[in-house]
Amino acid sequence: MLLNFVILYLLASIAVGLWFARRVKNTEDYAVAGRSLPLSVVIATTFATWFAAETVIGIPAKFLRGGMAATVEDPWGASMCLILVGLFFARKLYPMSLLTINDFYRVHYGKTVELFCSVVDILSYLGWVAAQITALGVVFSLITDGKITPRDGAFIGTAVVLIYTIYGGMWSVAVTDFLQMIIIVLGLVGIAIISGNMAGGPAKVFELAADRELLHFFPAWNFHEIMFFIGSGITIMLGSIPQQDIFQRIMSSKNVQVAVWGPLIGGTGYLLFAMVPMFIVTSSLIIMPSEAAALLQTETGSQEVLPTLIVDHMPKYAQVMFFGALLSAIMSTASATILAPSTVFVQNLLKHFWPAMTDRQELRLMRYTVLAFTAIVLTYAILMEGTSVYDLVSTTYQLPVVGAFVPLVCGLYWKRANNRGAIASILCGVSTWILFMVTPLGELFPQQLAGLIMAVIGMVVGSLASGSRAES
Questions:
Q1: How far apart are CA 106 and CA 110, in angstroms?
Q2: What is the pLDDT of residues 359-374, one digit of tens each?
Q3: What DSSP character marks residue 142?
Q4: 19 found inside a domain
Q5: Among residues 158, 152, 131, which one has the least CA distance to residue 384?
Q6: Residue-by-residue DSSP string for 303-317
Q7: Is 405 a member of any domain?
Q8: Torsion angle of alpha carbons 124, 126, 132, 136, nearest 10°?
Q9: Which of 88, 95, 145, 391 would you label with 353, given CA atoms 20 to 30 Å apart?
Q10: What is the DSSP string of 438-460?
């Protein structure tokens, strides 16, 4: 029953995605769904893109091993990213009618900054997409009781996502996200109810979490712990803001009000609902204490606590609910994170070498790039086998924090920001980040926070020293 359900679900996803692919007539349709999505779809596609493999597998594992404090990066920082975008960025960016976030860097600072931030944007997606592909492989292996290896499962799942993304672009991604969000919510709420009852009621689950000090959020009150806590918090909170996937959801909105409220509601919903997998995995400590204790001995083993609970201790209908929700979470994120860097590559890199390309040629190249990027990320996921899903995601956001965030904020909010300031910000931020990453300094102070501080200093000093906006 479980395997049949998964096959039907995958076929249905392809069918829905290809149906809405008929609406793609030009690059604007492909990249930002013709700027026509209503609030409900923008909320859904924002929520579904954020609610990914790490939310269902990675975050619960971190929570069991380190408590709520270990999840400051995701979901706390990740949800705050969306809320900050709704509060401070959407209203300013939406009227610009740009196709990618990196178009902003070209308009405000010139081609040099645009090219660098575009490369940063593309590279930052490698770990995120690889995490989804890795999780797809694990899901197929679990569903088939090992008859399909994780690597073969990764190929199968990626092929399904690729089919509707390559043809339908943002239209297919948004509509499938909407349907997948419904499955995520219904599936995980159902599992939470079942697991809570099996554990003796929600009160017992919360009591156990409190007894094990899993609900403590703030770190010990010393400089080192506080700085690394802040460093973790800002990684996704700030690193995701200058990225194409969230920008596409802003620009796909049918008006500025939708662009503002979509991320606000989606981010709030993500934070609240990310607690559900934490509750489920905590109940496993009561339902299967010895198995959970054994799995928690290693970081990769801790990722298997939740799937083990479902496969070994839940009825078949509950397994269908869980794997339906998990596949929805993974596929919604994978499709978005494959589309975003492909759009940036054509619009902000390739177009400089072929400025005379027509809209039809650009659309075709975007589809080819989706295929190529998928192949690259699949290879990267295979090479990174054994790395935790959570770590694959979190390490990808540090470069945008130190390289792209400050030029975006200053370009929107500081009139003195200019090309030289942006270049100085990038050089200071990235070089400091690398220095702390490859030396013992990174053990004394978080590398991403050090890079961010120097990026701010570089922007201020560079802009004030040059006096007027210069273009490169």
A1: 4
A2: 889 999 999 999 999 8
A3: H
A4: yes
A5: 131
A6: TTHHHHHHHHHS-HH
A7: no
A8: 180
A9: 95
A10: HSTHHHHS-HHHHHHHHHHHHHH
Domain boundary among 363, 396, 429: 396
List, for residues 48-70, the tens digit of each pLDDT value.
Answer: 888 887 788 889 989 999 999 99
Mean pLDDT to the nearest integer, 68-96: 95
| Residue 404 within a domain | no
Domain boundary among 368, 396, 424: 396
| Distances 298 to 66, 76, 292, 383 between C-alpha atoms, Å | 13, 24, 11, 20
Alpha-carbon Rg for the chain in angstroms: 22
Average pLDDT over all residues of the chain: 89
CA distance 377 to 352: 24
What is the distance between the alpha carbons of residues 28 and 5, in angstroms, rounded to a whole number?
35
Whether residues 215 and 75 fall in one domain: yes
Neighbours of 350 (CB within 10 A): 15
Asked if residues 129 and 393 have their Cβ atoms less than 8 Å apart, the reply is no
Beta carbons of 430 and 402 less than 8 angstroms apart: yes
> Which residue blocks in 144-219 are alpha helix, DSSP H?
150-198, 202-211
Q: Which domain holds residue 86?
A: 2-396
Contacts with 465 (C-beta within 8 Å, 6 or more apart), sequence order: 420
In this prediction the pTM is: 0.89
112: CATH: 1.20.1730.10
Beta bridge partners of 253: 37
9 contacts: CB under 8 Å, gap ≥ 6: 324, 327
Whether 408 is in a domain gets the answer no
Distance from the Cα of residue 304 to its chain's centroid:
21
Q: Specify the DSSP element, H or E, that contains 413.
A: helix 405-413
Which tops the pLDDT comparison, 446 or 135?
A: 446
The answer to whether 124 and 239 are in contact (CB under 8 A) is yes
CA distances from 138 to 82, 155, 328 (A): 28, 11, 14
Residue 84 scores a pLDDT above 80: yes
Please provide the DSSP assignment of 120-135 as one string: HHHHHHHHHHHHHHHH
Residue from 457, 16, 46 nearest 251 by CA: 46
Pull the structure tokens for residue 221: 């009150």
Can you read off the two tokens belonging to residue 450? Answer: 């050090």
Angstrom distance (rounded) from CA 407 to CA 402: 10
Question: Cα separation of 398 and 81, whole Å?
Answer: 14
For residues 123-147, average pLDDT = 81
End-to-end CA distance of the chain: 60
CA–CA–CA angle 55, 61, 63 (5° rounding): 90
Please tell me the total count of domains within the chain. Answer: 2
Token code pair at residue 90: 């959407």
